[in-house]
Amino acid sequence: MADLPPCRLRLFKPPFFSTGVDCFGPFQVKIGRRQEKRWGILYKCLTTRCLHLDLLEHLDTDAFLLSLRRFIARRGKPFEILCDNGTNFTGGDHELKESFSQMTPELQTQLAKQQIQFRHIPPSAPHFGGTWEREVKSVKTALRVILREQSVPESVLQTLLVEVEGILNSKPLGYVSSDIADPDPVTPNMLLMGRRDASLPQVLYDSNELLGKRRWRHSQVLADQFWTAFIRSYLPELQGRQKWTSDGKGLAVGQVVLLIDHQLPRALWPVGTVTETYAGADKRIRTAKVKVKDKTYLRPVVKLIPLPPKRDGDKDTLDGLS
């Protein structure tokens, strides 16, 4: 495996300085009595792993450039954009370069450093963009489970995508405190907002609200369903237990882990420290006690995801989840 590219290691740069972009969909939305298609577009910061989701009316160049302008207005101008060779991305690159070439030489000199560099991955090589393709897979899988073939109002779908953005940006990346006994995880939302994840109190609505006329409740039910489907499909893959033919690395006392709890409200990622382990008759650890703040839980190891260890002498480095 090759070393990480420079775009993954832009230290001391703002979020979305190096950004990966991809589209997904389509989704059916209701416009009056007719149905139309909409697509989602995902922007991912390659260094801080922050996400930005938006809705596209079409997959053409104009729709991409409109979304890019909205993205820049809210997140700031990226230094470089990495994407595939879709006609909307290549067309947007050509459009921006053509507009720049039509400026006066004085403006070109002043704005030369403001240009966005488009870096296209090779054709038929989606693994070159695995960083953002992995996020696209997570979003698409969960949205297909909850939406299936149903069509929703456009405002509901747009709200759902922003709710999904908040859920994904609340995933723990590393530690704030240098004390490993105080696992207080840093999240992409902290890097974006500079504060704890601030969200409205969760209100649980019945699934019957999907058939009602209250679009607000409809969007909240869909967001709850996304959270349920997401943690069932995404979190188990972080454990790396595809094969059971050999022993993996067991949990150790003092290790920081992420708990899987399907009963918690959405966007809550409990992180705790292993205080005690229990081995079975075969001397393999099957159960562990985990301390989360001032409470202790007994959980099986299949519900615990080890977080990356903090290396000695590297207190200021934040290790992210793979």
From TrEMBL:
GO terms for molecular function: nucleic acid binding. Residues 10-196 form the Integrase catalytic domain. One of its GO terms (biological process) is DNA integration. It comes from the Eukaryota. PROSITE patterns: INTEGRASE. PANTHER family: PHD-TYPE DOMAIN-CONTAINING PROTEIN (PTHR47331). This is Uncharacterized protein LOC113044185. The lineage of its organism: Eukaryota, Metazoa, Chordata, Craniata, Vertebrata.
